[in-house]
Write a structure and sequence with these properties.
CATH topology: AOC barrel-like
Number of strands: 8
Number of helices: 0
Helix content: under 10%
Oligomer: single chain
Strand content: over 45%
Distance between the termini: 15 Å
Length: 131
């Protein structure tokens, strides 16, 4: 299955555990999202990141648990993020954590793509639910 829609996201700084050195900034953020479309629900999670002194170069990882409805099926699942920004060129991987699906989403696998256009966040989610 392939679906798409929009989402809203609120990020807020959290107290970091570690401090960066030699031009590196380490940080932590909370994630609160609202998904609209065939994925209708919300998520909460955390992000950790490293920003370099070079403009447009950074990295982050995040975990968020999504709860709601996916194409009419109710449950939750966890998305894991891996993001690299190399002088403004982005590479982002978002995948469903294996065996994280609950309820009617048990057996969910898949990956999500995100793009931002004119301040609006869009998702494209390709997934399967195996029994």
């Amino acid at each position: 299955m392939k679906i798409s829609g929009i989402f809203e996201v609120d990020l807020a700084p959290l107290e970091p555990y570690a401090q960066g050195v030699k031009g590196i900034t380490l940080g932590r953020m909370s994630i609160d999202k609202r998904f609209l479309g065939e994925l209708n629900g919300s998520s909460k999670g955390e992000m950790i990141m490293a920003m370099t002194a070079v403009k447009g170069s950074a990295g982050y990882t995040a975990i968020e648990q999504v709860t709601g409805e996916l194409s009419g099926k109710k449950g939750s699942f966890v998305l894991q993020h891996f993001g690299i920004m190399d002088r403004g060129t982005d590479r982002l991987i978002l995948e469903v954590v294996p065996d994280s699906g609950t309820g009617e989403l048990s057996g969910l696998t898949g990956s999500m793509a995100i793009k931002i256009e004119n301040g609006t966040h869009f998702y494209a989610f390709e997934y399967e639910i195996s029994l």
